[in-house]
Amino acid sequence: MAINTNRNIYAVYKGDQYIMDGTIPEIARARDIKEKSVKFFLTPAYRRRKKIQDQNRKHPSEGYITLTMIEKVQ
After folding, report:
1. What secondary structure letter does DSSP report for 68?
2. How many CB atoms sit inside 10 A of residue 66's CB?
3. Using one digit for the tens of pLDDT, what is the confidence trace for 27-58?
4. How many CB atoms lie under 10 A from the CB of residue 24?
5. What is the pLDDT of residue 70?
6. Which of 15, 31, 12, 16 is nearest to 63 (CA)?
7. Phi, psi of 35 (to 5 degrees)
8. Where is 22: in which H helix or E strand?
9. Which of 3, 19, 30, 40 is the most exposed place for a label (fewest CB within 10 A)?
10. For the whole model, what pTM was predicted?
11. Phi/psi of residue 45, nearest 5 degrees
């Protein structure tokens, strides 16, 4: 049985600053972006891109969106 990621609750951070929490659809609506974009923030590809870009920044991870699962709904 697959887990419905749209029902899990995530906390959203931009750098170290807390932005909001909610489900993927709620975050997408609040941030005015597509759900597909929110899901991308959870992927290894996004983390790799962040890591590469951090190497070229004075303040690593500043301004990047990070999602952390705070409640898993099955």
Report:
1. E
2. 18
3. 999 999 999 999 999 999 998 888 777 777 66
4. 22
5. 93
6. 15
7. -60, -35
8. strand 17-22
9. 3
10. 0.77
11. -60, -40
